[in-house]
Write a sequence for this structure.
């Protein structure tokens, strides 16, 4: 996890013909001032040749900053790279490598993974891109371990996301790591987005079977979230829904792209994060309130999921405003 103490500069690298939606994913999360929240990010756009940049939506954008803007960025976003088979220029490759080598976080949305791969930033690492491009990415870059199923992969210094919508999930995930769960949840709420989707969820869910169309999981999810402090299990969830555990697992994968157990753990961790940020409750109390039984179990889950301890998380996100 990264904690930032000053205004964090996010710079998107665009190119002709730029996909507007991928760019908007980053701009909406990092570039909008929200009156209810302290402003923690400064968002900008740059391109190799400043001036009008054609978009895939039929209009031009006027971009005034060149590649030197990447030298001032804390996070560099590559919001798509089409056509994917066209390598970046040597100047762009140098700028991406230079930003990464001095410590900037470099992320891609959708086909932007190809630019990162051309720069060598994904060699020997797991990465993802849009499901329709994963075979091409794997074929062109055999040193990249391409995961075709996940929404995003975050290594801390480098991150990649799947299709454009998954770019929003990645950006909100990064805000959670930078600013805490409560700040990120507010950003997501203003965007009318779910507060968090795990990166390991499937890129897309299979269409529900006709007989399951009316079997929404919403009532079950609401029932579970009201009982996180209780010993809820996959079996008790299935019993409440009146189905077998196998049927419940199939519905979770169809509708949420994850298993009941993984979803339940994610809710427990998310609620624990909020309690650590917003209260002074002892760790044992936090653990019991979210159904993780003990401070020891809470620490283990935090380390496995977030790579930090509950105590370190609380100290970071209950400190002075970042």
């Amino acid at each position: 996890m990264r904690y930032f103490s000053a205004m964090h500069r996010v710079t998107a690298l665009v190119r002709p013909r730029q996909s507007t939606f991928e760019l908007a994913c980053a701009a909406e999360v990092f570039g909008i001032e929200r009156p209810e929240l302290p402003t923690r990010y400064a968002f900008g756009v740059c391109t190799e040749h400043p001036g009008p940049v054609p978009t895939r939506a039929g209009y031009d954008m006027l971009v005034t900053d060149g590649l030197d803007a990447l030298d001032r960025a804390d996070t560099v976003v590559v919001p798509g790279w089409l056509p994917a088979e066209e390598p970046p220029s040597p100047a762009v490759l140098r700028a991406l490598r230079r930003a990464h080598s001095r410590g900037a976080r470099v992320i891609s949305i959708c086909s932007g993974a190809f630019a990162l791969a051309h720069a060598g930033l994904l060699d020997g690492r797991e990465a993802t891109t849009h499901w329709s491009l994963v075979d091409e990415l794997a074929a062109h870059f055999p040193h990249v371990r391409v995961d075709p199923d996940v929404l995003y992969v975050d290594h801390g210094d480098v991150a990649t996301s799947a299709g454009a919508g998954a770019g929003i999930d990645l950006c909100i995930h990064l805000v959670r790591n930078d600013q805490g769960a409560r700040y990120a949840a507010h950003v997501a709420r203003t965007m009318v987005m779910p507060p968090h989707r795990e990166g390991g969820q499937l890129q897309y869910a299979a269409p529900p079977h006709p007989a399951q169309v009316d079997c929404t999981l919403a009532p079950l999810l609401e029932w579970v979230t009201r009982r996180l402090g209780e010993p809820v299990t996959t079996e008790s969830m299935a019993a409440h829904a009146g189905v077998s555990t196998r049927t419940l697992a199939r519905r979770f994968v169809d509708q949420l792209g994850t298993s009941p157990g993984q979803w339940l753990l994610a809710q427990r961790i998310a609620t624990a994060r909020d309690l650590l940020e917003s209260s002074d409750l002892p760790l044992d109390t936090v653990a019991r309130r979210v159904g993780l039984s003990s401070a020891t179990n809470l620490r283990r889950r935090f380390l496995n999921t977030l790579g930090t301890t509950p105590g370190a998380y609380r100290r970071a996100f209950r400190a002075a405003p970042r």
The longest strand covers residues 8-14.
